[in-house]
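tool_call: predict_structure(chain=1)
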Amino acid sequence: MTAGTPRKKVGRGYERDLDAGPFRPMTDSFDLHLRAERKSPKTIRVYVDAVLWFAAAYVIPAGLSDWSEVKARHVQQWVTTLLADYSDSYANNQFRALQQFFKWYATEDPDEPRPNAMANLRPPKIGDKLVPVISDDELNALLARAQGLTGVRRPQSSAIPQLLLGLKVSGVISCLASVHRVNRVPFGPFDGKSAF
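tool_result:
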């Protein structure tokens, strides 16, 4: 996430620099620790990649040369950078992966306790995610199309029950409970697919 450097799209995200240089040996020890605890391969990959990315993209450019130099403000600045470019939940996951690393790092050698840079930090809040809703025009078009379906086209005449099944139960109940006011009911991109 260097300013001005175009990021290469990979899958659903972007390619990340994971070259942690001098920070790699401790990260490899963390990887071994996770495998010894029989964590799932996906958990190990997420945790280790988060630590490598933090080291490569923030810690090394900040001029730090050892994990013991990382302070709470470094993690906070990194999380702020993530929040600017990624979703709240992604930044939260990255925070929690780093939290596991620093918790392990502080106690990795019982004879030589180290400071935990994240001991008093809290993860970023995850905001409410907006759910797409069906507009009045879309609902009217769907009802108009379903109204004329009879006879041979029997499977499609069940569009209204299928629509109702696709809606959240709470949304349907709130619509039925408040006859005198207009309510919008969440309707996702796949909820109406099976109706036609």
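agent: The mean pLDDT is 79. Proceeding to next step.
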